[in-house]
Amino acid sequence: MRWPWVVIPPLLVLGAAALVHALDPGGYVLFGLAGLAGFVLNQLLTDLRRRDEPPARPGWQFHPPAKLASARAGRAFAVAIMVVVVAVLADARPFDLGAAAVLATVSFVTGAQLLVRLVRRTPVLQLQESGVRLRGRVYPWEAIAGVELNGDRDNPRLDLLVAGRRHPVALRPDGVDANLLFLVDLLGYYASHPHLRSAIGDEAEARRVHALLLDARIAAGLRGGPQPILIAPAASVAS
Any stretches that span the bilayer, and where are they (predicted)? Predict the structure, then answer.
């Protein structure tokens, strides 16, 4: 059910443009308001905060939530179309049309990048023997100074502290289909056990580490730990 969220927003924008043009030719204000309302509705439908954390996925590749990832690509395409349509309906001058074309191109390229990542099933977070790949950038284990769970109950985030960076690299619940508590424990474990990194991605290692981390939380009397794990081959983890 992820692919409809890619095409529905652009189709709604095109439908709204056709309707506005039929009722009020040149009605760019009405179209802009309709597009804004549709954007907010799409945001509400797809970006509602998840109440329950999904199962931990120690296949060492952690993907973005499929519906959210596809919806963001769809919104980017919809914004590109909306900018062009508003400029045309407003009978913009050549300079304004050029500016609109630049904005639309940026939004379209963003949507295309998101779509490519969705098709290729590119993980947001991936653990490797050499380091941690986060949003396409690899941070060597030696450069990771710490991993923290910050924010509050309603807006938690995982902060990856990297040497040489003034600010941590943040990861939020809506950006990755994994339990943040599990990720904090997992990253911290391999950061402090370099001799075990060569086994990253092995199914037996995944089960061993998950059991170890979960037992440690239970022994410490902590609640809210990772749910039962979903094992998948390291090269192909279901999103």
Answer: 28-48, 69-89, 95-116
